[in-house]
Amino acid sequence: MMDRPNFTSLCQSRGLNATADILILCRSEDGLPPPPPVPGGYKLFMAVNDFIKLAVPIIFSVGFTLNCVAFYVFSRTKLKETSSSRYIAAIAVVDNVVLLTHFLTHLSIYFEVPVFEIYGLCQINNFFNCTCIFLSIWYVTSLVIDKFIGLYWPVKRSEYCTEFRAKCVAVSFAIFSIVFYHYLVWTIGPTERYLCLPMEGLAETYDKLNNLDYVVVAIIPYFTIVILLCLMIYKVCTLKSFVRQVNGSIRGRTPSVSRDQELKTMPLVMAVAMTTVSLGLLHNICRIFRVVHPVASTGGVFLSQVSYACKMLLYLITSERCRDQLLDLGRQLVRHVTTLFSCRRHSDTEPTRFISVNQQTDRSPEFHQIIEGVV
């Protein structure tokens, strides 16, 4: 056997510095064939991996903030009066939970933070992750169905697309998701320091339930959204053509006010639905067909996280009312900050005077009271 000094001098004499070159030398000295070369996709995978390592914390910070703003705008302003706003506010909440659970997993994998060493956090993190992914896609589907009903049957919109029914749908989906994903609490656990995997003996049960999850999350809602979007686009084109014909003639009946309102809000729904489907398509394909390509799998997960963080930007781009409400919110915030700053500055510059008050009653002796005030 070659000792360490002779091995080092041999490597230096032959000009070998890289680890791969040294391994080739060892195998040639032992009479073994050289190892296979590093695949070309490895460099691409490492580049994507390094990018995702730094990009995910940024996406989490920006997306979490934008979703909080979206929740406030669509639940605390004038926009809260419609059923669509209830779905959008619910989407903002569950998207934030998905971003948070993804970020905890990211800290465990890329930064080796012992997140899953905390007892129960592995099960809780995966439970809320899967539950809110389910709720996010189905709330988007409910939003599309809500607009589909208003576009095709505007008379029935006041009956089926109410704020109360939207709340009932959101709560019903939440209850169903809790019941459906309860298996994550007892089928997975922390097997290693930074991994959260199915427990021994329960892997087969987990796989069967996970296959059912593919159907519920990655197949049914996506096909529903795509079909309804195609029908809605066809209806919008038909209505636009009808309006042009009416404007070009004397006779004719213009679309109703409710349907015209649906046409104004249609770009928001279509933008959210198409972005959700397009950004989540790669990840769902990898899940359904069990694609283990490292670049495709990692990129699909990253794109799905982008879809959970960018919806507020879509609202601002496609909705004029959302922009107006956000501007009003910004003005109110600036006004409050300015008022608070001016009050503090005024209290610091003005002197404090003390007023002496003498108070005499019939049954009590005179007492002296100092009242402090700022003018």
User: How many domains make up the 3D coordinates?
Assistant: 1
Overall average residue pLDDT: 80
Question: Which CATH architecture?
Answer: Up-down Bundle
* The CATH C-level class name: Mainly Alpha
Given helix and strand content, the structural type is mainly alpha
Describe this structure in words.
The chain is mainly α. It has one domain (52-243, 254-324): Rhopdopsin 7-helix transmembrane proteins, CATH 1.20.1070.10. It is 74% helix and 5% strand. It is built from 13 helices and four strands. It has helices at 4-13, 19-30, 40-76, 83-110, 121-152, 157-160, 163-180, 184-187, 203-247, 257-288, 294-309, 311-318, 320-349; strands at 188-189, 197-198, 352-359, 367-374. The chain has a two-stranded antiparallel sheet. Strands 3-4 form a two-stranded antiparallel sheet. Helix 3 runs antiparallel to helix 4 (83-110), helix 3 packs across helix 12 and helix 5 packs parallel to helix 9. The N and C termini lie far apart (93 Å).
